[in-house]
Specification:
Shape: globular
CATH architecture of the largest domain: Alpha-Beta Barrel
Pfam family, one: Aminotran_4
Number of domains: 2
Number of strands: 18
Family: Belongs to the class-IV pyridoxal-phosphate-dependent aminotransferase family.
Bound molecules: 2-OXO-4-methylpentanoic acid
Radius of gyration: 21 Å
InterPro entries: Aminotrans_IV, Aminotrans_IV_CS, Aminotransferase-like, B_amino_transII, BCAT-like_C, BCAT-like_N, BCAT_family
Helix content: 25-40%
Structural class: alpha+beta
Protein name: Branched-chain-amino-acid aminotransferase
Cofactor: pyridoxal 5'-phosphate
CATH topology of the largest domain: D-amino Acid Aminotransferase, Chain A, domain 2
Length: 377
Amino acid sequence: MSTATSTDTSTATSTYPLSFALTPSTDARAEAERDEILADPGFGKHFTDHMVTIDWTVDQGWHDARVTPYGPLQLDPASSVLHYGQEIFEGLKAYRHADGSIWTFRPEKNAERMQRSAARLALPQLSVEDFVQSIKQMIAVDGDWVPSAPETSLYLRPFMIANESFLGVRAAHRVGYYVIASPAGAYFADGVAPVKIWLSTDYSRAGRGGTGAAKCGGNYAASLLPQMQAYDNGCAQVLFLDGETGTHIDELGGMNVFFVHGTDTLVTPRLTGSILEGVTRDSIMQLARDRGMTVEEREVTVDEWRDGIASGEITEVFACGTAAVVTPIGQLKGKGFEIGEADAPAGAITLALRQELTDIQYGRLPDRHGWLTRLDA
Ligand code: COI
């Protein structure tokens, strides 16, 4: 369970596992107001009534786990996260099943990835058990915020920040872990309609030995300017090439990318240390193998994409992530070129993989891989 490294000081004196104190909100939204939000949640716009906080110091380790009313953090202006960006986050979803029960998907994978991100950002590691417990605590107080309309969910956002007031550049001695939750519909406004993607050749998301494999705010901050260029070019997301040679496809601003070759092969860029190891990515590869497809993790070039579309070898392209689920990609645009048709219909394999994944997540298919964890019991 522990992935302690030499930079890990998290377990020094922590009580393990943590127990959570609850201060209920006295001003939680009324049912009617909540229902109005859940009827059209959008993505990342509304937040539930409570949040989780766990403090960490070098001397005490993790301590003072609590669930409190949702509200602003009080941060000293000298907090190191505000200056040096020592921050990591995760994203996972709570799904309501037809019988009303609430489940999440492979939370231990998010917990382990957060431990790896923490190691890279010189932050303390939270145990898998405490991570999962923090999610359960959110659902215990705000379970009514898990929507029940098709393909909606409660998006859970655990994050960790360095909140020591100190301007020297070193790993902070004081850290906070938090969980907030936000009811979610489709990440892209047009749902599963194919999106256009902008190829960034001016900017990289990650470099060799950098933080590309970590889920840290800095990676996303670096993607925002190229993401604006994507919008300016009528595209929904930006695609990055590897920072070293600028020839291989890495990933989108916030999602992994897959190519279907013919009807039986799925190809995705291999993990190089600069690509985020997506939980959805891993699950899609498993579902593809289950249906007899060959899965290749390897380098993919833009030329291969262009030639593959031209020859008909590449039949479908899609993006995937917790927020995006599985989203078809219709076209890649770059400076002076376009690959694929903007109005191409979503591919059959893309839609079938999306359907199977969401059927498992929403309890409509048996959980044959043991991916689900019940949150409300
Ligand atoms: C997720 O898919 O959970 C992410 O963190 C991506 C983010 C850009 C919304």
